[in-house]
Design goal:
It is built from 13 helices and 19 strands. Helix 1 packs antiparallel against helix 12, helix 2 packs antiparallel against helix 4 and helix 8 runs antiparallel to helix 9. The termini are far apart.
Length: about 450
């Protein structure tokens, strides 16, 4: 394809290869967790200005958006990258103070989103397109540091605990027709595999309240909150036989405070847990059983349990037609061996929320090793994860918006959104509640 528009996109991205990989490595070396990504956001905005874009900053605290208009009416595509790291203090590059580390590889997402912006924002390319493209650096995909985010919520800085949910609440997706993002894939194969679906998730903070007493001298005067929590976890485990395979239910509690002093009967025990499943119905079914189990633990021991429920993420349903357009771009770049499909994932993402509103594509770039969310995670193929992944996003956007955006319009028209934005926001709000039960 010499001198074709697509080859111009590819060549322009290759000409900025050092800068694009440089910024991705810089972010890799300076991880910041969700709603704290100030340095990362500044890097993104500066780079955008350097290539002639006009970014808006501080959206949902740290988000950055630059919109490019073709001047012709048509659909609006969002190409996204996530700003935040995880916290895994054992990683070799973990921030010594915060423990933040890029063990989900979101740094390469920023690189490939910016690569796509470099490839697409050339006047002779935009001349062939209709509609507009927004390049979005989104905060806080990882659902962590819940206490910190609850404090942000209480001070009115956010309402929801994840970045894309906040973008939706703030209206940043109101006029967006299609969303795309490329995540790292912890596999060393040279593939860019479009995803299928993800589990959704509900988050709970739980507190068992008992009565302290001398643990050796007078345990009969106490009410052991740790025993109540223990029983509740066992009851949750005994519910597992009722979960159906196709629902991919995952429930994983941790105890965040197990007691104050070993010589005192634990009177204040706290837990956090995620309840994940492949559909909202299955999430709600599992949630009912978890709440029963928590109450059963409290009842058996005579403790009180306080259950705070927060909306997590919606299950994702990624768009098959959009995946096909993306596959074509990958085939052009890497040949048939580069194309693939990521099967259902039992992890969760706020891209799931987006996917219930507009046609959404999330692909996975190989070129990483070690388990994600672990101390061993490494990026091994920066060219694939930043440059090729960025080219694939740019070529997909080009194909969608060229020729009066015919292919894009068809995908948008055929899409039956499970939720309108107001319905989605009210559903999310309904998940939030606190229940108290005294056993
Ligand atoms: Zn992650
Ligand atoms: Zn991730």
């Amino acid at each position: 394809m010499p001198n074709s528009p697509k080859s111009k996109i590819v060549a322009r991205i290759d000409s900025r290869a050092d800068d694009l990989i440089g910024i991705s490595r810089d972010i890799w070396n300076h991880p910041e967790s969700g709603f704290r990504e100030k340095r990362t956001a500044t890097l993104v905005a500066d780079f955008m200005r350097q290539i002639g874009l006009a970014p808006r900053e501080n959206i949902a605290i740290t988000g950055v958006i630059a919109k490019v208009n073709t001047g012709r009416p048509g659909p609006h595509i969002a190409i996204m990258g996530e700003l935040d790291s995880l916290i895994v203090p054992e990683h070799r590059l973990a921030d010594p103070e915060t423990g933040a580390a890029h063990v989900c590889g979101h740094n390469i997402q920023i690189g490939n989103m910016l690569a796509a912006s470099v490839g697409l924002s050339q006047p002779e390319i935009l001349d062939m397109l209709s509609g507009s493209i927004s390049f979005m650096a989104v905060p806080a995909e990882e659902f962590i540091e819940i206490e910190y985010r609850e404090a942000l919520r209480e001070s009115g800085k956010i309402e929801f605990l994840a970045g894309k949910q906040e973008f939706i609440r703030l209206g940043e997706l109101d006029d967006v027709d299609i969303a795309m993002l490329t995540h790292a894939d912890p596999s060393e194969r040279k593939t860019l595999r479009a995803g299928t679906s993800h589990n959704g998730m509900i988050a709970k903070s739980v507190r068992f309240i008992g009565r302290s007493a001398h643990a050796g001298g007078a345990p009969h005067l106490g009410i052991n909150a740790l025993n109540a929590a223990n029983l509740a976890m066992h009851a949750i485990a005994l519910q597992r036989e009722t979960f159906q395979d196709d629902d991919h239910v995952r429930i994983h509690p941790i105890i965040t405070r197990g007691g104050a002093a070993v010589s005192s009967v634990p009177a204040n025990v706290t837990m956090e847990m995620f309840i994940r499943a492949a559909s909202v119905e299955a999430m709600k079914d599992a949630e009912v059983k978890v709440d029963q189990a928590l109450r059963a633990g409290a009842m058996a021991i005579g403790a009180t349990v306080e259950i705070s429920t927060s909306p997590g993420y919606m299950p994702s349903k990624l768009n098959p037609e959009l995946n096909s357009v993306y596959d074509e771009a990958v085939r052009d770049l890497l040949g048939e061996s580069g194309v693939g499909r990521m099967p259902h994932r039992t992890s969760s993402t706020d891209m799931g929320d987006v996917s219930l509103l507009i046609p959404t594509m999330q692909s996975y770039a190989g070129g990483a090793s070690g388990r994600t969310h672990s101390n061993e995670f490494e990026i091994t193929d920066w060219d694939l994860d930043v440059l090729e992944a960025g080219k694939a996003l740019a070529l997909t956007a080009f194909e969608l918006l060229t020729q009066d955006a015919q292919r894009c319009r068809k995908i948008v028209n055929d899409f039956k959104a499970p939720f309108t934005i107001p319905d989605y926001l009210s559903t999310l709000r309904q998940f939030r509640r606190t229940d108290v039960f005294s056993g």
